Automatic annotation (TrEMBL):
Domain Methyltransferase type: 18-120
Bias-annotated ranges (Basic and acidic residues): 246-255
Family annotation (CDD domains): AdoMet_MTases
PANTHER family per record: GERANYL DIPHOSPHATE 2-C-METHYLTRANSFERASE, ZGC:194242
EC number assigned by the record: 2.1.1.-
Organism: Actinomadura gamaensis
UniProt-listed InterPro entries: Erg6_SMT_methyltransf (IPR050447), Methyltransf_11 (IPR013216), SAM-dependent_MTases_sf (IPR029063)
Sequence ranges of Low complexity compositional bias: 236-245
Phylogenetic lineage: Bacteria, Bacillati, Actinomycetota, Actinomycetes, Streptosporangiales
Enzyme class: transferase
Protein known as: Class I SAM-dependent methyltransferase
């Protein structure tokens, strides 16, 4: 299940692309299939081990172009071990809401992206996320959970102040918000609840079959209750200085 729209965020074979906060690797796998040189980056070593195995399986099954490559790197989003201006494109999907110092993470993303390079950021949408927080304390207080709820305006303002140019946005996964509201209402760890199980089966069926009816329903629901908002930004050829910093100095965290 992809959140980034690869018709809008086009990846060319041979491009160097970072999946920052890759988690289980869903976007990293798609980038690999599209012929990129992929770096799947995350703090969780167990998640990365699974991603590494899948990369190997994809290669063995012939699912990726011969010239594509993929690797996993463990590390902290606030101090990434990559040179300046290193990646052609970056995906940061459902990760910034977990990071207390999100502005520092954004400055790192700006630092490692090439001038003219594109970044796709996805975070939970404000309304669906606000309802989840209201329905369940456990949803957002678990270790490593969400530390903030973004409005799109706030996210875009932070990205602009970091030095990015905002190019556009859309919402995704409108069918998934009701599932999470049900989970929050019955208990986020209550996997045996009949209603939650039934809705989950519908979502799995939709992901596997992609019938026209659910595609049309999701298209209609996305602008209203889409679970995620996706913002596309570009690093200008001459990035504007972050707010409060002189144009001829690098941010202190990027040195």
């Amino acid at each position: 299940m992809l959140t980034v729209d690869f018709q809008r965020f086009r990846v060319t074979p041979g491009e160097r692309v970072l999946d920052m906060g890759c988690g289980a690797g869903r976007h990293a796998f798609e980038l690999y299939r599209r012929g990129a040189h992929v770096v799947a980056f995350d703090l969780d070593a167990e998640e990365l081990a699974g991603v590494e195995k899948m990369f190997g399986a994809m290669r063995l099954e012939g699912e990726v172009p011969e010239d594509a490559s993929a690797e996993t790197v463990q590390g902290d989003a606030l101090t990434m071990p990559f040179p300046d201006d290193h990646f052609d494109k970056i995906v940061a999907s459902e990760v910034l809401e977990h990071i207390p110092d999100d502005m520092r993470a954004m400055r790192e993303l700006l630092r490692v992206l090439k001038p003219g390079g594109q970044l796709a950021v996805t975070v939970p949408s404000w309304l669906p996320e606000r309802l989840c927080w209201a329905l369940s304390e456990d949803y957002h207080t678990a270790p490593g959970g969400h530390v903030r709820i973004y409005t799109r305006a706030e996210l875009e303002a932070k990205l602009k102040s970091t030095g990015f140019r905002v190019d556009g946005h859309h919402h995704a996964h409108g069918l998934h918000s009701p599932y999470w509201w049900i989970k929050c209402a019955v208990g986020v760890n209550n996997d045996g609840n009949p209603l939650a199980k039934a809705y989950h089966q519908v979502l799995v069926w939709d992901i596997m079959k992609r019938p026209l009816a659910t595609r049309l329903a999701e298209k209609a629901l996305n602008p209203v209750i889409g679970k995620s908002v996706v913002v596309y930004v570009t690093k200008p050829a001459r990035p504007s200085a972050p707010s409060g910093r002189p144009a001829d100095r690098e941010p202190a965290d990027a040195l």
